[in-house]
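User: Please fill in residues for this 63-position structure.
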C-alpha cells in the first residue's frame, strides 16, 4: 500500500500526538516510527512485527 506524505503527517497530528497502534505508547516528537499495513509502530513493536514476519525463515544454527 502506498501512502503519501500528507497522510503520514495527519497520523502525527492525532489528538494527544502520535501513538503506537500495537502497544499504545505515545511517540515523542521526532521519534522513529513505522507505518506498516495501516498501523503505526514504535521501535520495540517493529522488532516484534519483524520477528513474526520472518518467523517462517527462522532456523537454528548447528554447532
Ligand atoms: Zn509499540
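Assistant: Residues filled in for all 63 positions:
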Amino acid at each position: 500500500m502506498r501512502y503519501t506524505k500528507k497522510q503520514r503527517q495527519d497520523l502525527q497530528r492525532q489528538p494527544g500526538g502520535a501513538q503506537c497502534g500495537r502497544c499504545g505508547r505515545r511517540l515523542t516528537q521526532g521519534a522513529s516510527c513505522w507505518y506498516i499495513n495501516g498501523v503505526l509502530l514504535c521501535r520495540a513493536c517493529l522488532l516484534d512485527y519483524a520477528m513474526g514476519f520472518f518467523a517462517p525463515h527462522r532456523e537454528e544454527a548447528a554447532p
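For context: The beta strands are 34-36, 39-41.
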